[in-house]
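Hi V.,

You were right to ask for the full record rather than a summary. Here it is.
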Amino acid sequence: MSLSEAGRPLAVLVVEDDAILRLHALDIVEEAGFTAIEAKNADEAIAILESRSDIALLFTDVNMPGSMDGLKLAQAVRNRWPPIKIVVVSGHVQWIRTRCRRTADSSASRSRLRR
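Predicted structure:
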């Protein structure tokens, strides 16, 4: 069991809009010995984080409906709750590859311009 300094299981906030994937992630978190807390979107996650002080890890999907996606949620959590560890995941491999390729291409272009 993964325990906090107070001897209680560490809490993991799982943020996933797809109910089946969310339930599967919650099961995995609980089987690993953590306390699993769920949110359907970033707005719910922020509300939970504002009301609880025991969240040790944020596990969030990238693509979600609502006011912010998982990347923006991760940034908001990093800014407001720096001690919380963050894991960002996505099942949309092609989207991630495209975004990373665009970022790499943009960085390479900026690098060539600086020379």
